[in-house]
Design goal:
Elements: H1 2-26, E1 43-51, E2 54-55, H2 58-65, E3 70-73, H3 78-88, E4 98-105, E5 110-113
Antiparallel strand pairs: 1-2, 1-3, 1-4, 4-5
Amino acid sequence: MKNHKNICSVIGMTFLILQLCSVVYARFIPEKFFCWAPYDEHTNYQIKVNINGKDLSRSEIRSRYNYLSKGWEPRSIDNIFSLVQQYETTYGKAEKADVEILYNTNGNGWKIWKPIK
């Protein structure tokens, strides 16, 4: 009976330590997908896409990335960068789209991000 309690305690402590390590790790990566900390970034953004001289409409951009082309992101803007980068290096690679994201995080001025080709 005592060995059973010790085993359960070790399993429980291991689980909690792994959870703590995951949270600490998540705080130091840009995406912060699974971070339990409060969202401390708020970003206004607009995605612009041009393919062969034609600007895509808001609905075409939403269809392309399955994400709004303009809006407010309460999490890290890196989540959107990751989504766009992944699409442009896989499904959209042959189209050679010119993509840029205009964004403003926490009111610190507007910046432009472009996917790596």
